[in-house]
Amino acid sequence: MKKKFLWIFLSFIISFIDQLSKIFITKLFICKKILIINSFLNLFLIYNNKKIIFNLIYEKIDLQKNILIIINIIIFFLIIYFIKIFIKEYIFCYGLSFILGGAIGNFIDYVLYNYVIDFFDIHINRLHWFIFNISDISIFIGVILIILDQFKNIKYFKKI
């Protein structure tokens, strides 16, 4: 039981760090919208994701918000359930915790503001990647951890 709470605590730590970073960035960018860090990283404040996904359901903001809240709550409980079921699968549970922490961070933004605060802008010359935040990084890390965890179940990788 304690391990389950450890995984959930990790999720809340991640979402807390994400929220602190967003507060810091919004205060930093009161007068400007971009800060060039180096040749491939800018901090660029953007209020993003007013749509659910791929700009769908953009006309009915209240309906969209309610649908997103319900879907997120269901997913949160599913992730917590999977953590309970797979409690001894450490890499898998770390992955789920990172995904949950990132999802909570973006969910808080969406519920409070109807948008998500993004600010990392990675680029090579004029080729820019999506602008993202710490929650997005956390979700990405979580997915990578879950994929890596699945490799241990493949017979070929057990021989190595």
TrEMBL record:
Reaction it catalyzes: Release of signal peptides from bacterial membrane prolipoproteins. Hydrolyzes -Xaa-Yaa-Zaa-|-(S,diacylglyceryl)Cys-, in which Xaa is hydrophobic (preferably Leu), and Yaa (Ala or Ser) and Zaa (Gly or Ala) have small, neutral side chains
Pathway(s) the chain acts in: Protein modification; lipoprotein biosynthesis (signal peptide cleavage)
InterPro entries membership: Peptidase_A8 (IPR001872)
Cellular location(s): Cell membrane
Gene Ontology MF terms: aspartic-type endopeptidase activity
EC number: 3.4.23.36
Protein name in the entry: Lipoprotein signal peptidase
Originating organism: Candidatus Profftella armatura
Lineage of producing organism: Bacteria, Pseudomonadati, Pseudomonadota, Betaproteobacteria, Candidatus Profftella
